[in-house]
Amino acid sequence: MGRHKEFDQEKAVDQALDLFWEKGYEGTSIQDLCDHLGIHRGSLYDTFGDKHELFLACLDRFSERADDNYNNILKEDSDSPKEQLERYFARVIDVSMNNAARGRGCLMTNTTLGPVAYVPNVARRLEAYAMNMEGLFFSFVMRAQAKGCLKSKHSARELARFLTGTKQGLHVMARNAADRSILEDFAKVAISTVL
Question: For residues 58 and 183, what is the distance between their CA atoms, to the nearest angstrom?
């Protein structure tokens, strides 16, 4: 009979996510993970496989959290797409500033900029995350277009890609922005370009 695992796997993934987010994939060792999670190497390997497999689980968890943090705003069927996009970017700025204050930025953006981004199963997750964002913006733009709210002559796909880049840019800018108004100005211009 196998030994009973004496830790909560979901909580362990959340704790590992925070550590990877703080130190990056390359900067996090197996020993760091064991110490941070309070588990032995054997338990980590038995449960998650290895550091890389645990990191993949963390990327998946981060993607799930994005819906809770701000993506659900884009899914609403609002009478005012402009107000909806303003709320969305305000929430992205809130999250970005909080992460920047903790020295973290966006885990997906950080991962995209690091060497691990070239590992195929990481690259697939990064691409899926970006495509999901683009899809959410595309649906949002299509609803705004149906309501007659679009200012831009660009296609819905072009606008979705522009808004995806704006969102990612906000995460990057938050890492060294002197104050929130810098990010708000950036978002304001993007919103005014589209709606």
Answer: 27
